[in-house]
Amino acid sequence: MFDRLGDNHAQQFKKKGRYDKTKEHKKSDIGETLQLSRSQGGKTSLLIISSGGPIKLEDGVQATVDELKELNLGIIEKPRPIFVSALLSPEEEEQYFKTLGEYKDIFAWTYKEMPGLDPKVAIHHLGIRHGSHPIKQSQRVLCSNLIPCIEIEVNKLIDAGFIREVKYPTWISSIVSVKKKNGQIRICVDFRDLNKVCLKDDFLLPIIGLMVDATTGHKALSFMDGSSGYNRIRRSPKDEECTAFRTPKGIYCCKVMPFGLKNAGATYQRVMQNIFVKKVECYEDDLVVKTKKREEHLANLQIVFDRLRKYNLRMNPLKCTFGVTSGKFLCFIIRHRGIEVDPAKVDAIQKMPPPRNLKELRSL
């Protein structure tokens, strides 16, 4: 859910002017382009250590059913790509380009463009029960060939300001290295012992079914993805060192809220619900701006953009699509006429061969 924007990704958008009117994308086309970037070493992965998966800035476009057109909010030497529906008329496209250009400061193409949420708005507390005994996990044995890769990732986290070195911690968690499909290393922290002694935040997450239902029947939709969402919320300085973890470089703790900590989801959802207005369906860092009439959609987007600007929140432009008529939200395809099941989720069932005998029938 934390997103990556590689510096080398900009090379894909060279030789483009203000925007490329001839380049239209489907989701599959974009996937091929980004996969090519990864295979050529253009990906600069930046991970936050977590037990629930890495927090990273990821190139990719929010899943959508509409064809997409790429616009460039920057210049040829410093492109700022973003995506809108290819079904927009030339006049509508010009209006979207102008509006997105006016609010391009709410998008983060690099980590340096993410200021983080004001601690006065939200800060994450662990809520450790009184009388809990600190636990120092023993260090796991790491493969010698993985240690240099882990050290590189730790250096990136330090440079991003997400972690800091700590001495004499009372809690220490261990890390686990996982090899991803693209061959890169994912490092995760085992926060299970720490989570067991933390009080539960009973803030209710939205009911997915109701949120999906609320997005149907709208002629214009825009999908946005929070850029490094969890990492924009600071940790309470009082319990920062409780998140200490061992690495080959030393012991570090998280200065920002990572995935894997108990109540992190509740903290983030509470912030987002307090910030955004009724025109937005928000589930953690996935946002959908909806409008009954297409001509009113830009006005609603401006309201949302103003809120983002006010609270210093940033969106990942490579995962945002604007002015579309349909798209994927929480594993469902939403359209003006209703809801559909995502074909990718039922593909295995549809391709399953029919049972040929009684034994295969009983195994279903």
Lateral arrangement of strands in the main beta sheet: 2-5-6-15-10-14-13
Which structural class is indicated by helix and strand composition? Answer: alpha+beta
Topology order in helix (H) and strand (E) letters: EEHEEEEHHEEEHHEEEHEEHEEEEHH
- State the separation between the terminal residues, measured CA to CA: 34 Å
Work out the number of β strands: 18
Helix coverage percent? 25-40%
What is the makeup of the main sheet?
A: 7 strands, mixed
CA-atom Rg in angstroms: 22 Å
Q: What's the helix count?
A: 9
| Averaged pLDDT | 79
Spans of at least 5 consecutive residues whose pLDDT stays below 50 are: 1-61
Strand content: 15-25%
Principal-axis shape equals globular
Protein name: Transposon Tf2-12 polyprotein
Organism: Sesamum latifolium
InterPro entries: DNA/RNA_pol_sf (IPR043502), Rev_trsase/Diguanyl_cyclase (IPR043128), RNA-dir_DNA_polymerase (IPR053134), RT_dom (IPR000477)
Region (Disordered): 1-37
Give a topology summary.
Blueprint: E1 2-3, E2 19-25, H1 27-39, E3 47-48, E4 55-56, E5 68-72, E6 81-85, H2 90-102, H3 147-160, E7 163-165, E8 175-179, E9 185-189, H4 192-196, H5 208-215, E10 220-225, E11 245-247, E12 250-254, H6 264-275, E13 280-283, E14 286-291, H7 297-310, E15 321-324, E16 327-329, E17 332-334, E18 339-341, H8 343-350, H9 358-362
Parallel strand pairs: 1-4, 6-15
Antiparallel strand pairs: 2-5, 3-4, 5-6, 7-12, 8-9, 10-14, 10-15, 11-12, 13-14, 16-17, 17-18
